[in-house]
């Protein structure tokens, strides 16, 4: 049975925070995997030798952080990016087509490579000495073979995604790439930070987007963290707003 034995430093934390960390640890170890239902509050209280109120507070905090989801009348589950795509949209900024009949973008991978990180990528990802990163470049359109509306550069530290290949990325159908991280590598993104700025498209991008140069785009730099606070993804999304609009997260 799990117990709450910690160092003095950790014991200074509120009890619900200690329970929260225990639950996260069980999820990391795969005891409760994506979409798994957790024991009820009374069972968890008994498991951790705390009150039901302490457990409830810990669960509420984990739901707010997007690690767990609650379904009325059913219970509390480990968040699944496959089954809770809409939950992601409450945590980030995204774009919608100005054509209301187009709901889902069509993304394709145009390049995949393993590289030594340089410049901004090296500074932001904080890779270990000598570690390489996977660089995935994708392009998104609102219609098959349509004009590109988003140029997407993704950088993934190799230690979180060992053995990643283009075949793995393309062999399965995932609603969003975060579901792939979670289900194939056990990497659950619990926090995302988006920073946006205006940039100009280069001539090649403008041609693919069907616009004249100079043409401004919105560059979103996204830093994604796991429950340890480690950066598991660095992403640069250059969005063309000729035929789509940015929806701000709340």
From TrEMBL:
Q: Is the Signal keyword given for this protein?
A: no
Q: Name one GO biological process term.
A: negative regulation of DNA-templated transcription
Show the Gene3D superfamilies listed in the entry: Chorismate lyase-like, Winged helix-like DNA-binding domain superfamily/Winged helix DNA-binding domain
Record-level Gene Ontology MF annotations? DNA binding; DNA-binding transcription factor activity
**Pfam families hit by this protein:** GntR, UTRA
* CDD domains, sorted: WHTH_GntR (cd07377)
> Which UniProt keywords are present, listed alphabetically?
DNA-binding, Transcription, Transcription regulation
SUPFAM superfamilies reported for this sequence: Chorismate lyase-like, Winged helix' DNA-binding domain
Please give the PANTHER family that the UniProt record associates with this protein: GNTR-FAMILY TRANSCRIPTIONAL REGULATOR, MANNOSYL-D-GLYCERATE TRANSPORT/METABOLISM SYSTEM REPRESSOR MNGR-RELATED
UniProt name for this protein: GntR family transcriptional regulator
Native source organism of the sequence = Parasutterella excrementihominis
């Amino acid at each position: 049975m799990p117990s709450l034995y910690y160092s003095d430093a950790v014991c200074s934390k509120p009890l619900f925070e200690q329970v929260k960390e225990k639950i996260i640890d069980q999820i990391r170890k795969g005891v409760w995997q994506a979409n798994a239902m957790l024991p009820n509050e009374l069972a968890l209280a008994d498991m951790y030798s705390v009150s039901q109120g302490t457990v409830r507070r810990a669960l509420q905090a984990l739901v707010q952080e997007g690690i767990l989801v609650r379904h009325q009348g059913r219970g509390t589950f480990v968040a699944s990016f496959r089954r809770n795509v809409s939950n992601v949209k409450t945590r980030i900024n995204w774009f919608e087509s100005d054509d209301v009949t187009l709901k889902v973008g069509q993304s394709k991978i145009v390049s995949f490579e393993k590289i030594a990180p340089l410049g901004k990528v090296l500074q932001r990802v904080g890779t270990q000495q000598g570690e390489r990163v996977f660089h995935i470049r994708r392009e998104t359109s609102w219609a098959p073979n349509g004009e590109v509306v988003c140029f997407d550069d993704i950088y993934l530290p190799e230690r979180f995604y060992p053995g990643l290949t283009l075949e793995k990325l393309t062999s399965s159908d995932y609603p969003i790439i975060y579901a792939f991280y979670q289900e194939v590598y056990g990497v659950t993104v619990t926090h995302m930070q988006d920073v946006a700025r205006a940039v100009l498209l280069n001539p090649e991008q403008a041609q693919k987007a069907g616009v004249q140069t100079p043409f401004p785009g919105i560059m979103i730099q996204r830093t994604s963290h796991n429950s340890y606070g480690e950066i598991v993804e660095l992403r640069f999304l250059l969005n063309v707003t000729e035929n789509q609009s940015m929806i701000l997260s709340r």
